[in-house]
Design goal:
The chain is of the alpha+beta class. The protein folds into two domains: 55 residues, 2-Layer Sandwich (Phosphorylase Kinase, domain 1), CATH 3.30.200; 54 residues, no CATH class. It is built from three helices and five strands, in the order βαβββααβ. It is globular.
Length: 109
């Protein structure tokens, strides 16, 4: 399990921003797929939001690509297939990932 704290200092000044953050957390808790990191809980601690989520200890895709100095066709195909299946499930639930990039694709060890 991993715990992530996000400073909400600026967002706490606007009620609609807080509502938006909670709505997003609720949506994320409803996404259960083997290729999506699970969000178990989200709550406020002072001016931070605390996210309790599944831990992926294998690092980010960007580091994996750098270490291998690129990807083989087979590795790229397997990774793209997993990302596509995860996005297909999200889209099926009306959820759009608006920040899909190498840094946001994580690995299990």
């Amino acid at each position: 399990m991993a715990i992530k704290y996000i400073d909400l200092q600026e967002n706490l000044k606007q009620a609609n921003k807080i509502e938006q953050i909670y709505k997003e957390a609720k949506v994320l808790m409803g996404l259960t797929h083997r290729n999506i990191i699970r969000l178990y809980s989200a709550f406020l601690v002072n001016t931070d939001i605390c996210l309790v989520m599944e831990y992926a200890d294998g690092g980010e895709l960007v580091d994996f690509v750098r270490e291998k100095d690129g990807l083989s066709e087979i590795d790229a195909r397997n990774i793209i297939k997993q990302v596509t299946l995860a996005m297909q499930m999200c889209h099926g639930k009306g959820v759009i990932h608006r920040d899909l990039k190498l840094e946001n694709v994580m690995f299990e060890s």
